[in-house]
Amino acid sequence: MSYKVLRFLKNHSIVMRLHNSVLSTNFTKCIATSSQCKIQEEVAKLLALKAQLAPEDAAPQKFTLKTPKGTRDYNPQQMSIRNGVLEKIISVFKRHGAECIDTPVFELKEVLTGKYGEDSKLIYDLKDQGGEILSLRYDLTVPLARYLAMNKINTLKRYHIAKVYRRDNPAMTRGRYREFYQCDFDIAGQYDPMVPDAECLKVVTEILDALQIGTYVLKVNHRRLLDGMFEACGVPADKFRTTCSTVDKLDKSPWEEVRTEMINEKGISPDAADRIGEYVRLNGGVELADKLLQDEKLSKTKAAVEGLQGIKLLLEYCGLFGIQDKILFDLSLARGLDYYTGVIYEAVLTQPIKIGNEEQTVGSIAGGGRYDNLVGMFDSKNKQVPCVGVSIGVERIFSVLEAKLAAGDISVRTSDVDVYVASAQKNFLEERMKICTELWNAGIKTEQSYKKNPKMLNQLQHCEENGIPIAVVLGESELKRGVVKVRNITTRQEDEVPRDQLVEDLKTRIAALSVKEINGSA
């Protein structure tokens, strides 16, 4: 067969295939139209994303090494402050019989949604990993409610210290972050009214007294009273929660700004807003509760009467606990979280903290309240477990103490070492290691240089810089006589101690130093 014939047949075959392809395409075109549109939409999205990326030949951008916005590292001094604060807080929790629990750092998103009102927008959502839609925990209260419901627990007194996450615009200088510690104490169970609530307030006072960061007041209010107040002022029932969230801003914003938000954003009438303004300016003690029970509008509102009676009982119990002088009944306190159902409270410092030559306003350092319906949200039969609790604002407390440290107002030790084993001459590494082992085995916190022949001046300087109070100094002549020198780093006094009595001598010295520290002596 000639070359021309073969070429003709080949071209004819190609034409036929093209013809058939066109017919096939036309036949299926109407069926595939919707799929093609979807594909084209996805391709367009990918092209748009590609356009936002730098060109392939573009120079790589310089990577800035930093922590993510709203997070931080803790250096040894900051960790020492933090651990000291938490140690004091935990001792109070344990004194009141609380048990410790822990929960996952992330929860199913459905667990968290619908529990925080307007603050729900601050929840961090995670990318889908294996089919479960997850979010980082916003607080420790909702995970506790989930834990109680899931494990069918009816009574529990617990504390929980862990990190939580909020997609906020943080003011880190004021102790506000996107990742931060919460420190919670909660009592779950069906008990007589206001007994556990008053104990939560007692716990807060003990913690703040132990930390000694400044004078404070514990503001208290009642969600039922707020609902009754809104009802008496003419606020529609479906706007109680959003109005409450707006009132909650009074600790940061003046009344005029809050009033404007109520009217323009929340749809509250100017008359209702003005009536609310008359109430939220009030604060006092039992006498205020009695006065409000006689109020023409509030006395006709069932919710308000219930709230006021609850406040009176709470204040009575606070008197029995000896903390009535630290409690203030304040109608401006609202706390915006949706899950609160009864008494609410917040601890605030009454005066700015003096740091160096400047004064710093801190704001709220603890808050909480009663949430009787939260556990039931997770129970298939809506079984309720009444709860009340408090969260200590440890990050703000940390920030105050860290600022004091930076200003030189306080000092901290980053190490708990009590004894440093030093040598005045060369070639004493083996003997130093033997003594360190002996002291470690006796439970004495001990350290030494990792250099074989360290300089004596450097060893003593290390003790001074790290607050190590005692040095055991080895010397050739002393060891021949069976003694070592024990040096007080602060006073620089040295005593010779028999080698076989070293452990007991050091324990006595350390105990004496601990007593001086407790008594505030030099």
UniProtKB/TrEMBL annotation:
HAMAP family: His_tRNA_synth. Belongs to the class-II aminoacyl-tRNA synthetase family. It is an enzyme of class 6 (ligase). This is histidine--tRNA ligase. SUPFAM superfamilies: Class II aaRS ABD-related (SSF52954), Class II aaRS and biotin synthetases (SSF55681). Keywords: Aminoacyl-tRNA synthetase, ATP-binding, Ligase, Nucleotide-binding, Protein biosynthesis. PANTHER family: HISTIDINE--TRNA LIGASE, HISTIDYL-TRNA SYNTHETASE. It comes from Heliothis virescens. GO terms for cellular component: cytosol; mitochondrion. GO terms for biological process: histidyl-tRNA aminoacylation; mitochondrial translation. Residues 70-401 form the Aminoacyl-transfer RNA synthetases class-II family profile domain.
